[in-house]
Amino acid sequence: GIQVEQSPPDLILQEGANSTLRCNFSDSVNNLQWFHQNPWGQLINLFYIPSGTKQNGRLSATTVATERYSLLYISSSQTTDSGVYFCAVGGNYGQNFVFGPGTRLSVLP
Amino acid sequence: KAGVTQTPRYLIKTRGQQVTLSCSPISGHRSVSWYQQTPGQGLQFLFEYFSETQRNKGNFPGRFSGRQFSNSRSEMNVSTLELGDSALYLCASSLGHSAQQGYGYTFGSGTRLTVV
Questions:
Q1: Which parts of chain B have pLDDT scores under 50?
Q2: Mean pLDDT across chain B, nearest whole number?
Q3: Any B CB within 8 A of A102 CB
């Protein structure tokens, strides 16, 4: 099955800093999403982005499907951005979303 | 419109018992998927249902089962609970199923199951 890697595993930032989270996947995909898991466990959908670039406020994401990676950019980070960020990909053969191990982000005031 | 609703939010069960978790998808969504999240294994796929049919099943023992009703609501059942079944169980709904492009997942708040 598809393998998903995320880097870095942990990230500590000062409030106001920018960051880039990376997701690498081992096969071609037809679905890709980025999620933020809040401290209460809920997975919040950030982007559905199997290819191309999208922006939503301070967050943006780019997926280069031909090179099998996706990037999530967080600008001017806030303490409320803290949590775990997951990349999830769905394969071309009806495979369900496979989640990466996540990046744990801590934004310090 | 209402999001994905999972009940109950918290559950404590004794080893050997069985448990049923419920998930109501977003109105109009026909696909429901279940995931188990543990600190050691991360998020692992359990099942996917679409129009009352199980489309995919993850690598879990037969003690884990599920079903979907005609109104797209889904339940999952775990029989003969083991300590290792303690986890956050997350349900996600989608307009389309996993083989279709263009449909993302929306997750519920999860059910946190503790087996003692």
A1: none
A2: 93
A3: yes
